[in-house]
């Protein structure tokens, strides 16, 4: 019944039990609904209609676009419970986390409704008395976005809101596992006054083919991709054919560094929030814990005790603090990494919270005795496992932390202000959390360096990602 009221947010034509994809609840394997899938011809038509719609949208005043975005934000807030329920059902995350994601995702729409009115150009002091130098900021045009399943709502709003604020049109292909919250967002946007063809959500019959279409259709001027580094590289290579503008928000291998002088309570609370949020399936999750020798044993003991308190259960149950992984394949991959680490000498610490037998659950795990060479310390785990490595001094911590092709987020826990600055400056990452395990907010620029990608989402930089800077010279004055 509850699911029916949440599914009521979707347009009936986006649900299709004959030919659509079955959306499965990872907590119990149950079927939630069938989402209609679009083929390449239909997605091509959407791109062309979006491109036709964008000129009228861009010609409207910034205030007008801002008001429509604000109305979309208000509708999301009004329907927060249904959206959270859809997300819990299709992604498995506990309801409390799904509610937090609705707030977080909506905050990008509110933020960019305000930023829409501040897309200022510049008048630059001229190099000649009879000439003036200025810049205009203009929308990049029709955009395409490809999004993952781990944050099915927020990964969409932080692309669509700045695109619409800038005056662009945008087509979003959501992850195959989580089309429902994306489709609900689309309905609410249209109800708020976003023109129907300007923003479309298109679950695709063939995701790689849809990606190819975005990379090769001449009307698509920009692609914003959030997902794995592996697929990001494919898109980057294909988009090179038309030199398309790109934002790539890719995978990470975040170090979480605890120094001897850290506040231990803060470090353990930060570790729990950073590593076990969304069952460890977060791109900015702490992926490896580097802990200085003097605090190592106390940290491991306290972390293991806190992890044993996690309530692993179907996210729909109010007592659940950790839900399932997205599917059985993910469970197999994560348990394989844990088994291999133990074979290589890592030790499982503490009792573990138990996980339900049915559904795609994986119990949370703390591993000590991990070394930088082990696969568990060099790959993105994307699961509820905390591998702990011991280090002796700051130089060693920095060397291990930077010794990775990834560069998304890093965390340090230290009360020494000078060390905080040395580490903030020395870490080769797009984002650094100091004495805090949760860094995500719409007001800050979210994004990586190295193989974690480029482009920034949130903040004023997030709007700039959807605008071109045009330099104009006025002579003969
Ligand atoms: N940096 C960030 O902001 C950020 C945020 C969330 C997730 N992620 C990353 O996403 C990954 C987990 O998400 P995932 O498993 O959905 O990633 P994924 O790369 O498998 O899929 C992401 C999206 O790409 C689509 N896709 C898959 N193959 C494609 C292809 N060949 N061409 C075009 N599209 C294709 C998928 O259908 C999905 O919509 C992790 O690596 C995580 O770190 C990064
Ligand atoms: O998974 C990556 C995005 C999570 C976040 O925005 O905090």
TrEMBL record:
One Pfam short name: Aldedh
Keywords for the protein's UniProt record, in alphabetical order: Oxidoreductase
Cellular-component GO terms for this entry: cytosol
CDD domains (UniProt xref): ALDH_F5_SSADH_GabD
InterPro entries: Ald_DH/histidinol_DH, Ald_DH_C, Ald_DH_CS_CYS, Ald_DH_CS_GLU, Ald_DH_N, Aldehyde_DH_dom, Aldehyde_DH_Superfamily
Gene Ontology biological process terms from the UniProt entry: gamma-aminobutyric acid catabolic process
PROSITE patterns documented for this protein: ALDEHYDE_DEHYDR_CYS, ALDEHYDE_DEHYDR_GLU
Gene Ontology molecular function, alphabetical: succinate-semialdehyde dehydrogenase (NAD+) activity
Statement: the UniProt record of this protein carries the keyword Oxidoreductase: yes
Positions of the catalytic residues: 249
Residue ranges constituting the Aldehyde dehydrogenase domain according to the UniProt record: 19-471
Membrane-spanning residues: none
Top-level taxonomic group: Bacteria
Family named by the database record: Belongs to the aldehyde dehydrogenase family.
Name of protein: Succinate semialdehyde dehydrogenase
Species in which this protein is naturally found: Novosphingobium mathurense
